[in-house]
Structure formats: C-alpha cells, structure tokens
C-alpha cells in the first residue's frame, strides 16, 4: 500500500467533521493566525522588557536585524526558486513569494530570540524560560500560518481531509443512474408545461466517485469524480452535455472538485434551469501526484487513450450523456489546461469546446530532448504532434469550425496570460470561430482564477448545448476581464 493510500486509510478513521474543516476560511485558519499574532506580540514585549531591564538594546536589536536579514534572504531564495530556476514549472507569483519571505523572516526572528534568551547575561531565569517556551510554540505556529496563507492564495487544499486524500463521497455504484430517455429540448418543454419528470430537488446534484475501466489503454488511473445534476438522477433523464475536467500536476480529481467549487456552481446552475446542468467527469490523467503523463500515449502509459476512449466509452455506457462533439467539452487547470488544448484539436470527433485555465504552450516535464527520449522513444515528430499550436494547425476547416475555445488566466501569472493569447491566436488561424479570452484580476496560477473563469464558462457551455440562454454579457460577470 502506497503512502497516499495509507494516509487516506488513516484519515477514514477520523471524524468526517474534522476532515471537512476548511483550511482557507473559518475558525481553523483564523485561530492559527490569531494565536501566531498574539504569541509574536508577547515575544516582542518580553524582548523589549529584557532590553529595558538590561539598559541595552541588544535583546531587541539582534532579533530585529535577524528578521530583516532572513526576510531578504528568503525573498531572494523564493524568487530564484520560483522565477529563475522555475523549480515548479510555473512562477509561484509575488503574493506567494512574499508570504514565504515573511515566514522565513519570522523564523529568523525566533532563532535570534532563542539565542538572546539563552545568553547567560539575561538576568531573570523565569523570563528566559518563558521566552524559550514561547519561541517553541511560535516556531510551529509560524510554519503552519505560512503554509495556510500560501494555501489560501492557491486554493489547492480546501479541507483538512484534502491533505490526505480523504473523500466524503460515495461510489456511483451506490446509486441508480438510468439511461437517457429524452432530449434536453424535450425536458425544457416539459418544464414550461409544468410536467417535469420526478427528480431530486433542483439544487441537489450529487458528487460520486467512480472506477473507470482502462479497457483500451491499460493506463493505471486513480479513482475519478463525477458530478450528476438533478436531471441526471431522474428515472427518465435527458441526454445531457458533459464537461470532462482535468486537475493540474501535482493534483487529483478530488482536489479539482474541492478546490474549484464545481459542484456548487453546477447546483446553482441547475437550480436556475429546471434541474439541468452539464454532467462533470473528472478523470485522473497522471496516476499519481509525482507522475506527469503528458496526457499522451507514451512509453510511460497511454494517458491519451484513457482520457479520450476509456473515459468517454464509460460515460456513454454508464451515464445519461449526449454523444455528439458539440455536447462535450474538455477543460482543466495548469497541466490540465495544457492537456485540454492538446486533446480537443486531436480529437474533434469527441470534443466541441475547450475550457483551459493557466495552461502551458506545450506538454512539459523537463527539456524537450529529455521528453522525446524518455516518453516518445526518440521520435521528435510524435512529441511535436502533442503541442497545442501544432494540433490546431493540423485541423481541417470543418473540424476547426466545430471547435470553440473559452480560455482564462490569472492576471498575476504573466506567462499563462501570454500562453492563452498564443493558443487563441493559433486557434483563430486554424479557423476556430468562437474564441473567448478572459484575464482574472487579482489572481495568479491558482484555483481562484479557475473558479472565476468557469463560472461564466458554465453559462456559456450551457447556452452552447441548449440547456439555457445566457442572461448577461460576459463583461458583467464578477472578477473577469474579457480580452478583445
């Protein structure tokens, strides 16, 4: 059993309420931040008191200088890791860089305070012990506060359970999902006549887990997540559109569902559209957090076949889904966004729409030479065929005309903004005639950008697939800037 599986198994023994405690808002982060601030103020007060008793500035000046020096070193180190060496493949963004620098500055202050407290010339033994104890408490508090703040900026881990792969969702095998028996247009007609089929409350869509067989690909994927709108849970469901969504790397289907808030957005949409909303299928394109499949068929696994054949075959066999490309979209964040613009133009017979956020210009895991050697058995042409601009250029006019692009990027992630514009330009050149580019102010390479883009994106896709008309223009949605 792997580390992740052992952690998830251990988490299952803990109360579900604890596992679902929020890490980004509410009591837990506020308590940690408050305790850190109070303990920090107390430590400064004790250092000032020591300086006054000794009639010497060293007890306060030394920690102050250590704080400044540590902060500067931390800022430079975080910037080098983020923007120069690109250790994580993308820039961390200045809010994260500054947060890390502040955390390192705090640790520098505490180390200096401990040194001051241990100096033999500190006259009061009780004060020395109190400072040591306070510093011992502050070190983990400072680390946890820094981690929580970074997580809040990204929005990656929403709950305590998400840290260990805990899932509160039941298997799809625990519910009955019926075959489609009408079109979306017929469902809407019945709604207008007040003759809707029975279904759960219009806001009560379900998130479930699913083991999708890898019949064609033999790709070893983790369990997928599926959102079923209320109409899909009816005994007589309509043939619904599908959004196949992909997380980043590292990432997982469960983290996409939690971090994007996709279920809440879909439930809100369903409540306004007589229980109708797209079915969302979130498969795993990597198999593990540490593995990057490039979303391609390579020597390291047939991820492309899994995502475009096994997943699609399973959905068409198991769920009440429509089977025409116009009714299918693929989307994703970061690596999932890159996969989106790879796969849709390579499979225009399956997907009619793309919803990438903060994607890259090409599949990336090391240098191109390394990927050609390690993934594509030395065949450069096979790698080049996976590059989105090349895949778009290979479309014939009819295929390009059937595609649509609804792309977004966080304003602070300048590289992703440039990537989005490059992909959009390639799509226009290929003949894709429905293209939307959105920049999200105040966000970077994070899930906040994803949520802001997919909120109007769901309405856009719903209108495109006949679920309902858009009731406002894109520019009227909060926190988005539509690029002309």
UniProtKB/TrEMBL annotation:
Q: Does the keyword NAD apply?
A: no
Q: Which GO terms describe its molecular function?
A: acyltransferase activity, transferring groups other than amino-acyl groups
At the top level of its lineage, which domain of life is listed?
Bacteria
Task: From the record, give the transmembrane residue ranges.
Answer: 36-53, 60-80, 92-118, 130-148
Q: Is Transmembrane helix given among the entry's keywords?
A: yes
Pfam families in alphabetical order: Esterase
InterPro entries on file:
AB_hydrolase_fold (IPR029058), Esterase-like (IPR000801), Mycobacterial_A85_antigen (IPR050583)
**This protein's UniProt keywords:** Membrane, Transmembrane, Transmembrane helix
PANTHER family assigned: DIACYLGLYCEROL ACYLTRANSFERASE_MYCOLYLTRANSFERASE AG85A (PTHR48098:SF1), ENTEROCHELIN ESTERASE-RELATED (PTHR48098)
> Know the name of this protein?
Esterase
Organism, scientific name: Bifidobacterium callitrichos DSM 23973
């Amino acid at each position: 059993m792997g580390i992740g599986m052992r952690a998830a198994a251990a988490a299952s023994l803990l109360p579900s309420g604890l596992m679902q405690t929020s890490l980004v808002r509410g009591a837990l982060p506020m308590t940690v931040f408050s305790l850190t601030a109070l303990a920090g103020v107390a430590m400064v007060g004790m250092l000032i008191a020591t300086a006054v008793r000794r009639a010497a500035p060293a007890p306060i000046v030394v920690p102050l200088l250590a704080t400044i020096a540590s902060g500067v070193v931390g800022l430079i180190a975080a910037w080098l890791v983020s923007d120069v060496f690109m250790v994580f493949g993308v820039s961390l963004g200045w809010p994260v860089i500054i947060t890390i620098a502040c955390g390192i500055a705090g640790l520098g202050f505490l180390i200096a305070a401990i040194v001051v407290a241990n100096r033999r010339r500190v006259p009061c033994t009780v004060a020395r012990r109190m400072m040591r104890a306070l510093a011992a408490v502050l070190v983990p508090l400072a680390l946890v506060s820094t981690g929580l703040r970074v997580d809040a900026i990204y929005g990656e881990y929403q709950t305590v359970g998400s840290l260990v792969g805990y899932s509160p969702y039941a298997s799809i095998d625990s519910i009955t999902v019926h075959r489609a028996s009408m079109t979306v247009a017929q469902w809407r007609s019945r709604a207008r006549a007040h003759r809707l089929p029975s279904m759960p409350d219009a806001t009560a869509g379900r998130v479930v887990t699913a083991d999708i067989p890898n019949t064609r690909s033999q790709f070893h994927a983790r369990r997928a997540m599926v959102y079923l709108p209320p109409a899909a849970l009816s005994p007589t469901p309509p043939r619904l559109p599908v959004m196949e969504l992909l997380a980043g790397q590292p990432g997982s289907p469960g983290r996409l569902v939690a971090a994007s808030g996709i279920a809440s957005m879909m439930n809100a949409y369903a409540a306004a559209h007589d229980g109708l909303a797209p079915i969302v299928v979130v498969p795993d394109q990597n198999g593990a957090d540490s593995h990057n499949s490039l979303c391609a068929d390579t020597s390291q696994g047939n991820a492309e076949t899994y995502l475009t054949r096994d997943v699609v075959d399973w959905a068409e066999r198991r769920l009440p889904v429509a089977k025409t490309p116009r009714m299918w979209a693929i989307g994703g964040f970061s690596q999932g966004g890159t996969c989106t613009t790879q796969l849709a133009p390579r499979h225009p017979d399956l997907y009619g729409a793309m919803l990438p956020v903060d994607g890259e210009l090409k599949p990336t895991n090391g240098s191109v030479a390394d990927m050609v050697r390690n993934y594509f058995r030395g065949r450069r042409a096979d790698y080049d065929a996976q590059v989105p601009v090349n895949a778009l250029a290979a479309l014939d006019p009819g295929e390009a005309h059937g595609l649509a692009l609804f792309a977004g990027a966080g304003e602070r992630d300048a590289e992703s903004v440039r990537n989005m514009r490059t992909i959009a330009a390639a799509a226009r050149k290929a003949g894709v005639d429905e293209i939307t580019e959105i920049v999200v102010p105040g966000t970077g390479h994070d899930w906040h950008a994803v949520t802001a883009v997919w909120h109007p994106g769901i309405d856009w896709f719903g209108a495109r697939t006949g679920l309902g008309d858009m009731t406002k223009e894109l520019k009227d949605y909060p926190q988005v800037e539509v690029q002309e």
